[in-house]
Queue: 2 jobs
Job 1
Amino acid sequence: MLYYLFEYLDKTLDVPGTGVFQYITFRSALALMLSLLLSTIYGKRIIRFLQRQQVGETVRELGLAGQNEKAGTPTMGGLIIIFATLVPVMLFAKLHNIYIVLLIVTTLWMGTIGFIDDYIKIFKKDKEGLKGIFKVFGQVGLGLIVGTVLYFSPAVTVRTDTAKSDIFKVPTETVITPAPIEEKSTATTIPFFKNNEFDYAELLAWTGEGYEKWAWLIFIPVVIFIITAVSNGANLTDGIDGLAAGTSAISVLALGIFTFVSGNIIFSNYLNIMYIPNSGEMTVFIAAFVGSLIGFLWYNSYPASVFMGDTGSLTIGGIIAVLAIAVRKEMLIPLLCGIFLVENLSVVLQVSYFKYTKKRFGEGRRIFLMSPLHHHYQKKGYHESKIVTRFWIVAIMLAILSIVTLKLR
């Protein structure tokens, strides 16, 4: 909202200094600082409110060191993340930007699903929470909305030929270089390859002429799958103090770099990557989101004063998925969000192997001492703060490797 106020002061009243609000970097810095302040200052008040409402975590008997001491710790702390993200976004972002609208919808949508799940666990005393099928329906619903908007909205376009732009040509009397055309496309980026653009529509080329108009049959299901997988991965990663918030902040910060360069025609030309008009505005949202995650860590680091609950973990996963899809870097998710991936895989492998061995040998066997993977290391005797720190280090390495793909092909 402040963006529009300062735009009016700059363009209509010509007030000196107000034009600085036109810069994404300036507004991102303000969003980051405000979200940090909101999450650290008002986070304590939200925690006290949750304590008064007796919103305490019910701890299962898992046989893990220090687990019983966490009983009664306030949960639903994801409300801190949502609050500290949306307030700066509302103040400093262009609210008419299609990507900002999608991210706000994603935050509220996934936050609501997570809130309902936590509410059932706490107030209805049902440890299972919201039934899995309803969670999936919610994730699929968001995927349908995001996929449909990204595919059909005229505001979502790309330029893949930025090197031909007249911005980078010296005009002469004999050479005229037309500016590149913004176009609708389902193209995405394949990491580590030189000619690294892939169009989902090509999967339908075998159907004959005009196959491009049916690309939504591929694109929208892919979006649904990614949102469902990443949000569940974030949910499984939220198991020990500071793990989900810390690893997520690292991944989102890397996505912020991708977003900034993809939304800037000069950087996208230099790096020879896809230019996505208007996507740079997501940098403001990312700055606010990173600030809220870091501020949340103030209270969630060991020993945690509050847990994010599904209210936070599902929201985090949904936002990361939508950011990656919007900036056409969804194929980097297995690398960038490698922690989410291995946590997910550890559960899938553990359950599958247990069922297989029980059917074949009459007795279920396990690959890990316990799943998700972070609990395996707890069972081995590692302190959870050591596990979290090491997972953060791995997440940093994966984020750096992901960023390197901008030039490593």
Job 2
Amino acid sequence: MTIQELLKNNAGTIVDVRTVGEYQGGHVAGSVNIPVNELLQRIDELQELKQPLILCCASGGRSAMATHILKEQDFTCVDGGSWLSVNYLLSKTVETV
């Protein structure tokens, strides 16, 4: 499934892996903020989230790193890239419903 299909079907959870400060400056509504450097310490919290995890950050670098880290931990996840892109795709799915 593409990221747009996941969002349209309300499948999974959007996880923003930016810092708390960046997240507070703007984020996808309904997303969860777990900074990339805290992922391994917060595995229990991540396991409680609906998968697949749709990972996003500022430009895509940290979300790619987070995707790699979490796939090694057997999570079902996809790299959503920039949170602005995920937000745009989410807004398009709302418009077409």
